[in-house]
């Protein structure tokens, strides 16, 4: 008796630009909160790291769990996260696995950005997140990053959202027409 893998349902793929911008909005929100609540001393601050981790879990785990798989950034760009096998919003454990990996990479990027002027080698802290998310470039079928493969999740397009990317494109197009 052999076990055959059932291919997942066909879902609309999300391009990497939209995924990056959605993650960037979430990262920006969490970074602003952690920088406002942390101290302004030099170096890495434990309080800032703790606030960053708590805000990341709230924004990227609790909110999507209660909001059909969409965080603030994913809602802005009509994206949601689903489990591969069931095609539903992942449970809390899967979201915690997934966002624990991404959150660690995002935390390292935040530390790098706050220390890059004093220590240019801090740019090396971008490498873990780049490796994790860069794996999605080689996956042509599901476009899964390493954190998606580990948590058995995928990112898909959604009909529900704000369509910020489309609204920005329209605004730029309208501005170009008016400048002519």
Automatic annotation (TrEMBL):
Q: Does the keyword Transmembrane helix apply?
A: yes
In terms of InterPro entries, this protein maps to:
RDD (IPR010432)
Question: Sorted alphabetically, which keywords does the UniProt record give?
Answer: Membrane, Transmembrane, Transmembrane helix
- Give the way it sits in the membrane: Multi-pass membrane protein
Domain RDD as annotated: residue spans: 15-152
Give the stretches traversing the membrane: 44-63
UniProt subcellular location: Membrane
Where it mainly occurs, coarsely classed, is membrane
Specify the superkingdom.
Answer: Bacteria
This chain belongs to which protein, by name?
RDD domain-containing protein
Q: Which organism is it from?
A: Brasilonema bromeliae SPC951
Taxonomy of the source species: Bacteria, Bacillati, Cyanobacteriota, Cyanophyceae, Nostocales
């Amino acid at each position: 008796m052999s076990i055959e893998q059932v291919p997942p349902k066909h879902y609309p793929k999300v391009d990497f630009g939209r995924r990056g911008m959605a993650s960037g909005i979430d990262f920006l929100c969490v970074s602003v909160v952690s920088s406002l609540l942390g101290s302004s001393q030099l170096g890495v601050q434990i309080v800032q790291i703790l606030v960053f981790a708590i805000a990341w879990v709230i924004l990227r785990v609790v909110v999507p769990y209660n909001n059909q798989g969409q965080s603030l950034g994913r809602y802005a760009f009509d994206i949601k996260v689903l489990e591969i096998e069931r095609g539903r919003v992942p449970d809390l454990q899967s979201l915690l696995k997934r966002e624990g990996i991404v959150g660690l990479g995002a935390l390292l990027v935040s530390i790098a950005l706050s220390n890059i002027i004093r220590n240019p080698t801090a740019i090396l802290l971008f490498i873990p997140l780049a490796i994790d998310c860069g794996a999605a470039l080689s996956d042509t079928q599901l476009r899964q990053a390493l954190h998606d493969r580990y948590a058995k999740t995928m990112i898909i397009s959604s009909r529900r959202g704000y369509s910020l990317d489309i609204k920005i494109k329209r605004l730029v197009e309208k501005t170009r027409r008016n400048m002519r």
